[in-house]
Design a protein that fits this description.
With about 350 residues, the protein is α/β, with parallel strands linked by helices. The protein is built from 14 helices and ten strands.
Length: about 350
């Protein structure tokens, strides 16, 4: 028996929060849920959790109804084949459980609001999506783990826009025909063609050369997504969703992008808050980063967490965001793992605990 303390069992939000926190972590193996007992709110919670893929794979729902005349109880399987974006995100996470991805149900208000906005905006098919956030806030990972399922696109093609000259950027994006420019010895399809049927992700879009930005405007203003590869006689058409990311503030990004391109990619903006605004999520983030970086089976699956670490992370500015947690995890692995094979186990220094700096 798992007793749940809720203020009012008829309130959906209270019942949902209690089950997620106290019941779901205990569910393993073959799970059967009778949704009939309890309040209508509890009935609805089980259906929502099932649709959201929050229950173990293969969980079955049942409905029991008692006939007062015959005094017999009938048990029927609940047919509820609803697929939600949360269910798809969790399905992908189960397929790769070591990936350090943001939890869809964040604890901090700032991150919860950002993920809610991301869910709404990423669900608008055909509209470019702009993600803003400091370095290390996990924008790329969010595109991989959240935007893809929300747009129902498995394929993701990424271009890091920094360090590209104009010709190379246009060749990478739009492709070219052999002989289109010096060094073009063979045909190149280009990333737009490679991303056909999926998502093209332009990381640090402000670094894209201006000529490539202008050509991209032409693609975005055409609902058929037509473009012409370098040196080609005919246009091509692709089915591509565009996601852009930048570590600049919106005003700075506006000054760096072509005005028409900025107008087209900035309608739907999502700001990913830094970790210092989401300290309620720090413990969970730390556990996910640890699981991703842990490779030694001798190390514990649960990341170390001490009062000293909690105080240090609570006070640190966390300027590197998730990269600070990654650095800290590597330091813990270096100082706390394998050291006993060489000498006396050393103690992790206090300055190392402070966001992995040392």
């Amino acid at each position: 028996m798992v007793p749940l303390a809720v203020d009012d069992p008829t309130r959906h939000a209270s019942a949902y929060a209690a089950v997620v926190a106290e019941v779901c972590p205990r569910l393993v193996g073959e799970v059967h849920v009778n949704v009939s007992p309890g309040t209508p709110a509890m009935h609805a919670v089980w259906l929502v959790l099932h649709a959201g893929n929050a229950l173990p794979v293969g969980t079955r729902l049942w409905s029991s109804q008692r006939n007062p005349e015959t005094r017999r109880t009938r048990l029927d399987a609940v047919d509820f084949p609803v697929t939600t974006y949360l269910g798809e995100i969790r399905r992908r996470r189960r397929a790769d459980p070591d990936v350090a991805a943001y939890e869809t149900e964040a604890r901090s208000p700032a991150r919860r609001a950002a993920l809610e906005r991301l869910a709404r905006y990423a669900g608008v098919a055909g509209a470019p999506l702009l993600m803003l956030g400091e370095r290390g806030t996990g924008k790329t990972r969010l595109v991989e783990t959240h935007v893809g399922p929300l747009r129902q696109r498995e394929k993701l093609v990424t271009l890091a826009c920094g360090g590209l000259d104009s010709t190379l950027a246009e060749s990478l994006l739009f492709g070219h025909r052999r002989g289109a420019f010096t060094g073009a010895a063979t045909d190149r399809a280009g990333l737009l063609t490679e991303a056909d049927g999926g998502i093209l992700f332009l990381d640090e879009v402000q670094d894209l050369p201006s000529a490539a930005q202008r050509k991209l405007v032409r693609v975005l203003q055409d609902r058929h997504r037509r473009y012409r590869p370098l040196g080609a006689d005919r246009e091509r058409s692709v089915d591509v969703e565009l996601v852009c990311a930048s570590n600049l503030e919106l005003a700075a990004l506006r000054s760096r992008l072509d005005a028409d391109l900025f107008d087209r990619v900035s309608h739907l903006q999502v700001r990913i808050p830094p970790l210092r605004e989401c300290r309620e999520d720090l413990h969970d983030d730390w556990q996910r980063v640890w699981r991703e970086l842990r490779r030694d089976a001798a190390m514990p699956t649960t990341a170390p967490w001490t009062p000293e670490m909690e105080r240090a992370l609570a006070a640190d500015p966390l300027a590197g965001n998730l990269r600070d947690l990654q650095r800290l995890a590597l330091l813990v692995l270096a100082w706390g793992a394998g050291a006993h094979d060489r000498c006396e186990r050393p103690r992790l220094r206090r300055e190392d605990v402070a966001a992995g700096r040392g």
